[in-house]
Amino acid sequence: MTQTVADVMTANPICVRPETPLREAVQILAEKRIRGVPVCDRDGQLVGMLSESDLMQRESGVSPRPFVMFLDLAIYLKNPKDYEKELHKVFGETVGEVMSDRPQSVPPDCPLPEAAQQLAAKNVNSLLVVDRDRHLLGIVTRGDVVRAMASE
Hints:
Elements: H1 5-8, E1 10-11, H2 22-32, E2 36-40, E3 46-51, H3 52-60, E4 67-70, E5 73-76, H4 80-91, H5 95-98, E6 105-106, H6 112-121, E7 126-130, E8 136-141, H7 142-151
Parallel strand pairs: 6-7
Antiparallel strand pairs: 1-8, 2-3, 4-5, 7-8
Helix pairs in contact: 3-4
């Protein structure tokens, strides 16, 4: 019988809220030696993920908006909303301002081979396990998949 993510996931992972100060979340990542932390609202519903990638973007700074000049008029080549989001990631003080708001997730009954395929195809280190109401149940990592392979 094929294993599911529920069989190998870490249940009840550490979670932070959008209003958590960024400094506090960074401290959690460093102390626990983890690559990211799920972000849940007051009801336990998944709303985002704060990852090392988000923090690297913050540390590297914001790049100038690309534009072209036409008859003394600057025409910006980047969507203003995307640029504003990038500014929030760089200058944000809370987890909600810096996090990715579209985390990769799977249901608990997702077959492990399918989860492994998603991890590889989306080039992510983990998938968040959520129920139908988007309540966070756990997290499954590449390491969990490898350990499951080793135990077979």
